[in-house]
Structure prediction request, 427 residues.
Amino acid sequence: MFADRAKIFIRSGKGGDGHVSFRRELYVPCGGPDGGDGGRGGDIIFQVDDGLNTLSEFRHIRKYAAKDGEPGGKKRCHGKDGEDLIIKVPEGTVITDFESGKVIADMSGENRREVILKGGKGGQGNMHYATPTMQAPKYAQPGQPAQELWVQLELKVIADVGLVGFPNVGKSTLLSRVSNARPKIANYHFTTLNPHLGVVDLDGDNGFVMADIPGLIEGASEGIGLGHDFLRHIERTRVLVHVVDAASTEGRDPVEDIKTINKELENYNQELLNRPQIIAANKVDVIYGEDENPVDRIREAFQDQGIPVYPISAVSGQGVKELLYAISDLLKTVDQTPVIFEKEFDLSTLSVASLPYSVERTEDGLFVVEGPRIEKMLGYTNLESEKGFRFFQKFLKENGILEELEKAGIQEGDTVRMYGLEFDYYR
Prediction:
């Protein structure tokens, strides 16, 4: 089974906690603080692997976590940094935030390696907190929390030319004839369930990469069949080649087929209609009768749109050479800049300050403050130390929580609850 989309959970490493300890040596009865710093948490890194062409690995493993940093030790020993986790993906993989659908990174072109989630910074040991008035601090800084996120991986094929058309019109046959690709070919619908790429070499001209996009059907843009799975691969192509059954061997009208496919492209992404198009009128070797030539009818239907039509037979090779050189000439006129999806998701929103919280007053007059921002902050703050409690007070003020409590009507002496912590409010 071809896999071109996967949902996975990623988590960077937590920073190691700083250590609290004091020198205890012979003849040094009052040694100073010597607690070491915690190690940095590991990063989550995505890297392109040219040996991969599907996302099938992610069907079996859905959760990926980097190593946490080790805590600091005595004698100023620094905790070991957590090991980074490198996740290898095929070129063309687009990483998006699962909830919002916004692009985090596009692993294409020159973007071969990118840090997606940074590991938490290690906490400082108590050796950093000695002052003239506090020579024996019993406080060390906890390590910063890890970052975590559900992401969607989507593989979007990178090709110069995309072959589009209804099932069983001869796209796979054409690709196998003109390139080194060997797609499965048979006379039934949806033989191709995944895109195939082939390199087309031309004598005396530039070659190009051609992709056989699986057969589209009416309603594909609405997700009918495997519509969205197929359509996503067209987004990177520079030129679209409509392959149609000019002989109507299955009773379909080739003109209506092209109009239907273009409608689905427009519904999915209107910009796709701006891509240059060529029509390959296939199966001309089985056109019989002395009636109107269907190729002429196709030309007449699309001449106003400036779409050229090339009669071919993918089986016999008739007209194929002319088609390939026409595609090559058209590619020379289009923008050669690769289609790279721009970043939309701001990873800084994963910081504690960006997380939500709520302030509510209960019927018995208790003020309850909850939410991910509060829970994360309490997780890395040592409230038992004087310095930790000062940090806690500063956090409440800078994050607007005190202001929200005052808006809710809090008075001096009222009780505030934050998960397992309760304290009385005083200005």
